[in-house]
Amino acid sequence: MNIRILRSTDIKEKLARGVFPEWKDYAARSEPAPTRAVGVMSGPQDAYYFGTTGGGGYGDPLERDPQRVAEDVKEGYVSLEKAKSLYGVVIDSPSPQVDRKATEAWRDEIRKQRRSLKR
């Protein structure tokens, strides 16, 4: 986990305007938070950033919109291999475009394998 203190931010003002602050806007004004935060001084414009490597998500990964999985691949959040093995999405690597027909067939195969494990 990446825990940092963001100093002298405008986060409160952004939130008051309905704008969601982004980490990249404050990275240059951040410092690592100590592992034990006893005695750490912070002011009214300071904030803490807790960065994690992702979550468990919710729902069946096979139900995730294939186009959104392709966008995750394009952004580097998910590899082509994990898109196929976890989400059942077959992506043409150079494009990266979803092969819808192959995706449906692969997802059906994964579901079939799941059913055989339940016996």
Description:
With 119 residues, the chain is α+β, with helices and mostly antiparallel strands. The chain folds into two domains: 2-51, no CATH class; 61-117, no CATH class. It is 35% helix and 14% strand. The protein contains four helices and five strands; from the N terminus they run βαββααββα. It has helices spanning 11-16, 66-75, 80-87, 100-117; strands spanning 2-6, 30-32, 47-51, 91-92, 97-98. The strands form two sheets. It has a three-stranded antiparallel beta sheet, with no helix packed on it. Strand 4 (91-92) and strand 5 form a beta hairpin. The chain is elongated. The model has no long low-confidence stretch (mean pLDDT 87).
Q: Kindly report the average pLDDT value.
A: 87
Derived from helix and strand composition plus strand pairing, the structural class reads: alpha+beta
Q: How many domains in all?
A: 2
Q: Tell me the number of strands.
A: 5
Rg, alpha carbons: 21 Å
The count of helical stretches stands at 4
Q: How is the main sheet built? A: 3 strands, antiparallel
Q: Spatial order of the strands in the main sheet?
A: 2-1-3
The low-confidence parts are none
H-E order: EHEEHHEEH
The helicity comes to 25-40%
Shape: elongated
User: Which percent range describes the beta-strand content?
Assistant: 5-15%
* N/C terminus separation: 39 Å
